[in-house]
Fold each of these.
Amino acid sequence: MPVDFAAVQSYLESLVPDRHPELQKMEVYADETDFPILGPASCQFCYLLTKLHGARRVFEMGSGYGYSTAWFARAVDENGGGIVHHTVWDQTLSDMAKEHLTRLGYPERGSGGRTEIAYTMGEAVQALRETPGTFDVVFNDIDKKAYPDTIDLVYERLKPGGLFITDNVVWSGRVADPSNQDESTTAIRTFTKALSQSDRWECTVVPIRDGLLVAVKR
Ligand SMILES: C[S@@+](CC[C@H](N)C(=O)[O-])C[C@H]1O[C@@H](n2cnc3c(N)ncnc32)[C@H](O)[C@@H]1O
């Protein structure tokens, strides 16, 4: 019997515990506008990884209006507090994120909160390059064509043992179709292969929703 992957994904989402009303509002907005947020099952997984890692410094590349940011912030907060960097190249999305995340109890950097959010409106890889310090977790959800350009920079900026988590590495199954040679699909394959075959990283792909690649810096 062929597997109904959409039904499996809905089932997995149904297992995620009830969310804060603000997060629920963000989920409804994504449904109504077709905005590609990670969704609750993938975010629950990212939250757990970040929490188990004890992470206090997270850098997110390609943050949209802050849905995935909120889950990283929750993990950081439960680890004792710290900073989550939100980056997106769209001012409206950055402003929306600020409103949602403030209502969730994560103020902007410099407000004296236990867990704060640093906002950069601009290109995410450039933002990481220009942000000082190292990170426990870097999350990657930018334009897929640019995935291969992130590897060396993220390696440099992660602490040893740090996590590099990347969304969409299954790309609705297109990565497994050799006849598909479009630019995004090819870039995702190049990126995933480079990380998986490198002796600088320990990797696994988790086929939850659209596929998360989890890479640990050796
Ligand atoms: C897939 S959505 C992000 C969803 C978000 N991670 C979530 O789950 O809530 C990616 C967002 O990042 C933006 N983006 C894509 N590539 C980017 C880049 N290189 N720099 C900054 N923003 C980027 C897109 O315009 C979009 O708003």
Note: Strands lie at 57-61, 82-88, 115-121, 135-140, 158-167, 201-206, 212-217.
Amino acid sequence: MERKSEILCFEVSQEHPTIPKSEILAVTHGEIIEEYPGVLIVKVENPDYKRLQELGMCYRVSKILGSGDFHDICEISEEIPLSGSFRVRAVRKCEDISSSKVEREIGRRIKKKGLKVDLKNPDFEIRVILTDKCHLGIKLFECARKEIIKRKPHKMRFFHPGVMLPQFSRAIVNISEVKNGEKLLDPFCGTGGILYEAERIRMRTFGVDVQPKMIFGARKNILGELVIGDAKKLPFRDSSFHAVVSDFPYGRSSSLSDEQEKLYSEALWEIHRVLKDFRRAVIVTNRDIKELLPPLFRLEELHKHRVHKSLMRYFWVLRK
Ligand SMILES: C[S@@+](CC[C@H](N)C(=O)[O-])C[C@H]1O[C@@H](n2cnc3c(N)ncnc32)[C@H](O)[C@@H]1O
């Protein structure tokens, strides 16, 4: 199959400085060309638009048609082979040029070709990203983020405090590199917040929780296979999952109790055992667990997120 590469612009949430980039790279395996707060320009081979629409930390994706100085993109705008109505939106990141001037000038040139301006509901939207260069793109789609963030955890059929926001759950499912129809396990599944996001993107979900009330409750939220059990002794065969994504139970004190250290350590070995070779586990904790990681895991990324004064979340991206 001929490989088709595209330069895509991802306009991302700034609620975390590194997770949106990690999510995009896990889904695209692309190459970063430019990076600004809120914007990533990435070269992607054979992009899968449907999967990109499912990013949790991205607002919208545009295809870059050309880059250069303002004069260059004005010329490129006259060559775009489109018909129907349009609007132009400029996103200013650091170029000294005013976005309204850019919108007016590019709009004027496209209009000259007989196209109609429609600011409310256009057939297509031209997006100009102004970094230290000017990038001219056409918007491909808005991502599902708006719907994802509407799913407040307390509005799920079954709720228990301590659930991560759905956009973070979606992002870490994507960071696990799980693909359509593959098996994803959460061995501390609680209400099923992570599994819920995985099901929305067609993964086969498996959850374990030691508390029966959590498993009975989670069954109201998700369709996957849910088992009452202990993460220290998972009821699954070796190498049976394509990904493990989990938010570990948090201890209250700032240091690990012996009991919690035993739980974390044994659960990590079990996760290692049930995960397929070369696949990823994404683990969320509220403390540093580097010393507990089984030696055969490679730590690929660590993202820290200060949720509030007394809660720092650590996102461990591990490869078996
Ligand atoms: C931070 S919560 C998980 C929250 C979850 N992501 C959600 O969406 O609700 C941790 C969960 O681990 C469970 N848990 C604690 N010890 C466990 C063990 N040994 N084995 C399995 N689950 C355990 C708790 O019952 C709790 O539901």
Note: The CA atoms of residues 177 and 291 lie 24 Å apart.
